[in-house]
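pls design
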């Protein structure tokens, strides 16, 4: 049994440990013998462990990637965590990366650096997801759930965005002619989106969806109240989604193939229709993405109390994407009024005990990932413990509902973040991550470029 004083060291399964580069003698790393032997036990002592309700001082034992009870024979390796604070890793329940080999390593490291081990990609390239299959969902990488092709209407969102990217290398067309070209292009259909315009098309869409075994489906609802006008307007390409008539049958088909359905929504009416259709998750809260709404349209983003109550009672997870909403470049009076409506929606859902989770809705923007969770607790008025529960317990479990994650106790996956300071005194400590351990493996993550 190797006893390693107060140094930080981790016995890694099969790989040499990556250890802190700190010059601080107290925390300087010492190398333990790497081993692939899954019977070996590592002891992590002298830390404050997140319990769900607070932090408790103590020791944890890890064997074969899981927390285990104290072994009678003692541990093979002892690691002192020098009185630091330990939390479960974080989740991001609405993102769009990674979605291919493109920039994969950098994207993976953005997440790992931010302590995000669990990612739900709500819309991505099918081919791209296949490319990186071997590089994700391993102890040294991020764990990803893919939705693959979201279902929308022809000419809607995100068809226009993806076609525009393919044709013009820009997410938004530069002019009306480009917009029309992108809205009529089907070049990327089947890879990054599927279109469904009427019920007779549903069986064909279902056949294409059945090619994938992914556990979730994303369907698009955008300003459904004005959908007819938008869909008939050649300048409104990309601003609409599915017709109300196809929603319930699509959800039923998805459920029949074992998929949970996440709905993209923009307005309260969209959220109402999504609930009526029997969805399993809301990918946004109305008002999140509104630029400069005239006051006359503000009401369409306001959640009626009965709907908020219904969402709360249903127990479905709700991603607020507040980090994205907070990132709006403009700070106008109109923008602030929309923001007020949006944040009132969040508090209303909170009062009705909705299951709010974090999600950045970005292509791996580290700032938005970090801002999302802190902004949400700011609006909800929660303390540090509420923030940790949101990021490290509720969100990961929504993404991987059958896994034993989000708790630091025997039987659970031995995945955790060692923080440099007490997150109860400073929220920033949640990102002051000194060590990352995933399923018993100490991760090496290069510093931000
Ligand atoms: Zn999205």
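designed seq:
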């Amino acid at each position: 049994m190797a006893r390693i004083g107060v140094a930080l060291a981790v016995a890694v399964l099969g790989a040499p440990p990556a250890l802190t580069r700190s010059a601080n003698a107290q925390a300087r790393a010492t190398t333990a013998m790497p081993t692939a032997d899954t019977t070996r036990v590592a002891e992590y002592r002298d830390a404050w462990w997140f319990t769900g309700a607070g932090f408790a001082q103590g020791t944890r034992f890890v064997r074969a990637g899981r927390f285990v009870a104290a072994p009678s024979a003692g541990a093979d390796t002892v690691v002192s965590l020098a009185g630091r604070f330990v939390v479960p890793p974080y989740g991001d329940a609405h993102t769009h990366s990674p979605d291919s080999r493109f920039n994969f390593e950098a994207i993976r490291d953005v997440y790992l650096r931010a302590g995000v081990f669990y990612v739900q990609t709500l819309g991505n390239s099918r081919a791209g997801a296949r490319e990186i299959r071997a590089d994700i969902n391993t102890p040294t990488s991020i764990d990803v759930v893919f939705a693959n092709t979201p279902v929308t209407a022809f000419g809607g969102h995100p068809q226009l965005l993806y076609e525009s990217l393919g044709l013009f290398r820009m997410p938004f067309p530069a002019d009306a002619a480009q917009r029309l070209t992108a809205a009529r292009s089907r070049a990327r259909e089947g890879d990054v989106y599927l279109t469904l315009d009427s019920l007779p098309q549903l069986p064909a869409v279902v056949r294409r969806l059945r090619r994938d075994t992914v556990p979730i489906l994303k369907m698009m609802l955008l300003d459904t109240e004005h959908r007819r006008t938008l869909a008939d307007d050649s300048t409104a390409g990309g601003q609409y989604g599915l017709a109300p008539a196809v929603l319930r049958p699509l959800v039923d088909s998805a459920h029949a193939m074992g998929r949970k359905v996440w709905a993209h929504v923009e307005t309260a009416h969209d959220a109402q229709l999504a609930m009526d259709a029997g969805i399993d998750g809301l990918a946004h809260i109305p008002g999140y993405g509104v630029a400069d709404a005239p006051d006359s349209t503000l009401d369409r983003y306001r959640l009626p109390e009965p709907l908020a109550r219904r969402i709360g009672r249903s127990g479905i997870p709700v991603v607020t994407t507040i980090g994205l909403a907070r990132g709006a470049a403009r700070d106008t009076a109109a923008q602030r009024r929309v923001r007020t409506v949006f944040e009132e929606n969040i508090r209303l859902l909170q009062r009705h005990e909705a299951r709010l989770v974090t999600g950045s809705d970005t292509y791996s923007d580290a700032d938005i990932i970090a801002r999302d969770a802190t902004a949400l607790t700011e609006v909800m008025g929660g303390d540090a413990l509420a923030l940790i529960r949101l990021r490290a317990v509720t969100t990961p479990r929504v993404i991987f509902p059958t896994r034993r994650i989000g708790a630091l106790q025997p039987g659970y996956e031995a995945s955790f973040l060692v923080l440099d300071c007490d997150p109860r005194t400073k929220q920033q400590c949640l990102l002051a991550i000194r060590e990352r351990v995933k399923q018993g493996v100490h991760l090496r993550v290069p510093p931000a470029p």
